[in-house]
Amino acid sequence: MPYIFVRDYDIDLMEMNKDIRHVFVESVLQAGGERKVAYLRQNERGLPLTLRENYSPDMGFLSADTEVRDIKQVEVELQNISRLSYNGANVCVPISPLSRELDSIQKLSPKTGRISEKKNGLNRNGAMRGMGGYRSHFELNIAKSLRQRGVIFEYEKRKVTFIPKPRTYTPDFYFPDTEVFVEAKGKFDKNDRVKMLLVKEQNPDLDIRILFQNARNKIYKGSKTTYGAWADRHGFEWAEGTMPEEWYKNGR
Fold first, then answer.
1. How far apart are CA 216 and CA 224, in angstroms?
2. More confident residue, 101 or 9
3. Nearest CA to 185 among 110, 123, 128, 244?
4. CATH classification of 137-248 is 3.40.91.30, yes or no?
5. Does the pLDDT of residue 98 top 60, yes or no?
6. Which end of the chain has less Cβ packing within 10 Å, N or C?
7. Rounded CA separation 232/90 (Å)
8. Comparing 51 with 39, which gets the higher pLDDT?
9. In what order do the strands lie in the sheet with 46-52?
């Protein structure tokens, strides 16, 4: 593979060799960054890899809010880099900037793994590849338990469109026997709550329920409202830890 691994952005090397393409870490807004990043952004041989929401110190990562919106862009960018390399182009890869971003994603992103490592291909530890495609250990354990009980289910196969800005919601689990959708939640942040309310309001015919890893968690620091209390308030049927049998087994 014609990859050239460098410690940082090496635009001097790229200027010396006109056949070299150079990967750089891009922001979602395609703005900000150091002088070398600005140079690569404007150079036709610069290869963006969109790993940052923006360049502010407290928001330099793919959050749950941006994952659905931007992960396909990351996929396309990775495929483009791979295609150019396969076709013989010399691709300069900056190790330190990529390592910093991967560490930031790992440390600052929700622990439930809403950053889809199986999709973006950026998991250096290969953890998701060893989890059968599930996004978190919580989801993996749910699936294992269901299989042990011989339960028929689908995982992330059905899509639901909602607005504003037409977006697609993919429920975690669907049970054909009961026609019940289940969203498995470890961390349940504001973006998740807003999404669930929009989907429920715009799709009243769907039976969408929530399985919390810990329903006693507070919706935000300092709040008295637990995940379970929030679900009660907004009319969501919910459970904690284990999938209730009546959710997947028809009583007929």
1. 10
2. 9
3. 110
4. yes
5. yes
6. C
7. 56
8. 39
9. 3-6, 90-94, 20-27, 46-52
